[in-house]
Design brief:
mainly beta; Glucose Permease (Domain IIA); two-stranded antiparallel sheet; 1 helix; 14 strands; binds zinc ion
């Protein structure tokens, strides 16, 4: 896997040890829970093998590690040192970092599951830049060398 300098000294790493496909992209899509309705997907869905370790894409402080039964299930958020970037992981089988813990890029932050508002095991991955969700796909593709 490559390592890419994206912004202001923040290095990004791929969130899995091996390639995992994006199964649902960023932006408007058919709402899986409300047929006929459109939802704005604020991240990408990756993979589907339960128990697959997911990795910290950046080094930083864990700003959330909690259970939200209605939406994100077991979820984790990691904030970059400069406060610009936030990586979010949702629907974990279980989290592997604690709130307030500092994690290095590549650290296992949780294991793929289907907790919360989810139809099947997957990782819902969000990347926020200055608080705004951006499409993770270009960053993920760059990290894979695509
Ligand atoms: Zn999703």
């Amino acid at each position: 896997m490559n390592e890419t300098l994206i912004s202001g000294g923040t290095f990004f790493g791929y969130p899995f040890m091996t390639f995992v496909p994006i199964v649902s992209g960023f932006g408007p899509r058919a709402d899986p829970f409300h047929p006929g309705q459109i939802e704005n997907h604020n991240g990408v869905d990756m993979g589907g093998v339960p128990g697959t370790p997911a990795l910290a894409m950046i080094s930083g402080k864990c700003s959330a590690s909690a259970f939200d039964p209605d939406l994100n299930g077991n979820y984790v958020r990691i904030d970059s040192d400069d406060g610009i970037w936030q990586i979010g992981y949702a629907h974990f089988e279980r989290c592997n970092v604690a709130f307030g813990e500092y994690v290095n890029k590549g650290h296992i932050v949780g294991f793929v599951g289907s907790t919360g508002h989810s139809t099947a095991p997957h990782l819902h991955l969000t990347i926020r830049k200055n608080g705004q969700a951006i499409d993770p796909a270009p960053i993920l593709n760059a990290l894979k060398g695509l």
